[in-house]
């Protein structure tokens, strides 16, 4: 058995989707090498667990309310009591593994991978190693905005300008549903959760 000091590896989960959170808890508890110490629905509550609930590894989403995955990782920098963190996300943004590593994560796992692969990632990180997918650096741009379509770039600029969804729809002569569709894809590509994060991202990267 892979254990920490003769006991099961304690994992704290931060996942906004209650069904997935429940499923992850059942999956991990079904493995005698792992124990779920806590499961919360946002990054703020996850950070509050540290110092209150003993755990070895944090399994966190990237897009979460209150504080997202990047906020959590930034908050843990320099903390002596920081657990090892694995980012677990379904975002299609190919640059997220690099971002997570740069922010101090110990591992990255995609929701599109098998449950067995997630378990293996947890055990490997618990053993002191890092786990990240292979990234062909030739396919990545140093400019994260380069992954956006022309329309998505236009909408991002409009958001930064303070326009509402209705104003964006009128300005671009498209429906409100189309605006929401493009914004969802924009958020997914950049690993963002809401309008405020998109505006902040744009201001930091323009």
Detail the topology: elements first, then pairings.
Elements: E1 9-14, H1 18-29, E2 34-40, H2 43-49, E3 57-60, H3 69-76, E4 84-89, H4 96-102, E5 107-110, H5 115-126, H6 150-160, H7 165-172, H8 176-190, H9 195-205
Parallel strand pairs: 1-2, 1-3, 3-4, 4-5
Helix pairs in contact: 2-3, 6-8, 6-9, 7-8
Q: What is the gist of this entry?
A:
The chain has 206 residues and is of the alpha/beta class.
Percent in helix: 40-55%
Any idea of the CATH class of the largest domain? Alpha Beta
Characterize the largest beta sheet: strand count, sense, and whether it forms a barrel: 5 strands, parallel
Biggest sheet, spatial arrangement of strands: 2-1-3-4-5
Order of helices and strands: EHEHEHEHEHHHHH
- Number of helical runs? 9
- The count of DSSP E runs of length 2 or more, i.e. the number of strands, is 5
Approximate strand percentage = 5-15%
Rounded average pLDDT: 87
Question: How many distinct domains?
Answer: 2
CATH superfamily of the largest domain: Response regulator
Structural class: alpha/beta
Uncertain residue segments: none
Q: For the CA atoms, what is the radius of gyration? A: 18 Å
CATH topology of the largest domain: Rossmann fold
What is the approximate shape? elongated
For the record, give the distance between the C-alpha atoms at the N and C termini, rounded to a whole number. 49 Å
Proper CATH architecture of the largest domain: 3-Layer(aba) Sandwich
How would you describe this protein?
- The chain has 206 residues and is of the alpha/beta class.
- It has two domains: 9-137, Response regulator (Rossmann fold, 3-Layer(aba) Sandwich), CATH 3.40.50.2300; 144-205, Winged helix-like DNA-binding domain superfamily/Winged helix DNA-binding domain (Arc Repressor Mutant, subunit A, Orthogonal Bundle), CATH 1.10.10.10.
- It has helices at residues 18-29, 43-49, 69-76, 96-102, 115-126, 150-160, 165-172, 176-190, 195-205, and strands at residues 9-14, 34-40, 57-60, 84-89, 107-110.
- A five-stranded parallel β-sheet has the order 2-1-3-4-5, with helices on both faces.
- Helix 4 (96-102) links the parallel strand 4 (84-89) and strand 5.
- Helix 6 (150-160) crosses helix 8 (176-190).
- It is elongated, with a radius of gyration of 18 Å.
């Amino acid at each position: 058995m892979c254990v920490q000091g003769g006991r099961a590896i304690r994992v704290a989960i931060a996942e906004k989707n209650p069904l997935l959170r429940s499923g992850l808890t059942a999956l991990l508890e079904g493995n005698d090498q792992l124990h779920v110490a806590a499961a919360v629905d946002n990054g703020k509550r996850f950070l509050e667990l540290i110092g209150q609930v003993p755990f070895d590894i944090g399994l966190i989403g990237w897009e979460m309310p209150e504080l997202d995955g990047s906020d959590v990782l930034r908050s843990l920098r320099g903390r002596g009591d920081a657990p090892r963190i694995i980012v677990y996300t379904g975002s299609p943004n190919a640059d997220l593994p690099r971002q997570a590593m740069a922010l101090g994560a110990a591992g990255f796992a995609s929701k599109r991978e098998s449950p067995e692969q997630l378990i293996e990632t947890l055990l490997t990180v618990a053993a002191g190693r890092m786990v990240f997918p292979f990234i062909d650096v030739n396919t990545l741009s140093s400019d994260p905005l380069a992954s956006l379509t022309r329309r998505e770039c236009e909408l991002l600029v409009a958001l930064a300008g303070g326009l509402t969804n209705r104003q964006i729809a009128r300005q671009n002569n498209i429906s409100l549903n189309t605006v929401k569709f493009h914004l969802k894809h924009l958020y997914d590509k950049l690993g963002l959760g809401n309008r405020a994060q998109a505006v902040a991202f744009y201001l930091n990267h323009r």
